[in-house]
Amino acid sequence: MSFFALALSLAIRDGSAILEVRDDGVGFDPNAISLRPEGRGHGLLGIRERLNAVGGSVQINSAPGRGTELEISVPLEV
Questions:
Q1: Quick check: 22 and 11 in contact, CB under 8 A?
Q2: Are 35 and 44 in contact (CB under 8 A)?
Q3: Is residue 36 domain-resident?
Q4: Is residue 1 assigned to a domain?
Q5: CA distance 29 to 14
Q6: What is the CATH number of the domain that holds 50?
Q7: Does residue 14 fall inside a structural domain?
Q8: For residue 59, what are the CA distances in angstroms to 3, 14, 39, 78?
């Protein structure tokens, strides 16, 4: 069995809630994946669609062999 480290961070910055998710897993090439590959889930596409609906965004930083970092930003309403 393999174990990977996962780190979560939540902050309020510039009027937005910022969630950072990092792992030290196997990573992937974000440019090499389709948003709706046949027979696959809709994870990244679903994240982007939900964030777009509330004015948010996601940045994905990953590469094979070096883990993945997501930065999710959601504006806070005042």
A1: no
A2: yes
A3: yes
A4: no
A5: 30
A6: 3.30.565.10
A7: yes
A8: 24, 17, 24, 24
Q: How far apart are CA 72 and CA 21, in angstroms?
A: 8
Write the pLDDT tens digit of every residue in 19-67: 999 999 998 888 776 555 555 556 787 888 899 999 999 999 999 989 9
Confidence (pTM): 0.79
- Nearest Cα neighbor of 68 from 47, 38, 39 is 47
* DSSP helix/strand/coil, 21: strand
**How many CA atoms are closer than 13 Å to the CA of 28, on its beta-carbon side?**
8
Range of the domain at 58: 6-75
